[in-house]
Design goal:
CATH topology: Herpes Virus-1
Keywords: Metal-binding, Zinc, Zinc-finger
Shape: globular
GO molecular function: ubiquitin binding; zinc ion binding
Order of helices and strands: HHHEEEEH
Number of domains: 1
Low-confidence stretches: none
Radius of gyration: 14 Å
Number of strands: 4
Mean pLDDT: 93
Distance between the termini: 21 Å
Protein name: FYVE-type domain-containing protein
CATH superfamily: Zinc/RING finger domain, C3HC4 (zinc finger)
InterPro entries: HGS/VPS27 (IPR017073), Znf_FYVE (IPR000306), Znf_FYVE-rel (IPR017455), Znf_FYVE_PHD (IPR011011), Znf_RING/FYVE/PHD (IPR013083)
GO cellular component, one term: early endosome
Largest sheet: 2 strands, antiparallel
Length: about 120
């Protein structure tokens, strides 16, 4: 997924997501579609907007947004929209995700909050 994203191949990225690839997966250097440097985030917003069902949750020991290490007091959370592993501070937003039939407000990261409220990628 990251390679397709790096080359701007939106159709391949979306096909991989439909096949169940975890959007939040990082490579050995900690790079993912969320932190890879691009001129704009339009492709990322489009991919997030295209998600049709709850994605697989990412694994790890650090917050994918701020890099904080998880401990007994620093708990792991997952953005229910994109599946990223995030700390409480980086996932303070809660909202229902109607496209996943989640009527009750659930935890989402800031990027997904923006996509879900502003409709980026449409």
């Amino acid at each position: 997924l990251l390679l397709a994203y790096m080359h701007g191949n939106a159709e391949l990225c979306k096909a991989l997501l439909r096949c169940g690839v975890c959007l939040a997966t990082t490579n050995n250097y900690g790079v993912s579609v969320f932190n890879y440097e691009t001129p704009t985030k339009q492709l990322l917003f489009s991919l997030l907007d295209s998600l049709e069902s709850e994605p697989k949750w990412a694994e790890g020991d650090v917050c994918s947004e701020c890099g904080a290490k998880f401990t007994l007091t620093m708990r792991k959370h997952h953005c229910r929209h994109c599946g990223r592993l995030v700390c409480a501070r980086c996932s303070e937003q809660t909202m229902p995700i109607l496209k996943y039939d989640l009527q009750k407000a659930v935890r989402v990261c800031q990027i997904c909050s923006d996509v879900l409220t502003m409709g980026h990628g449409r």
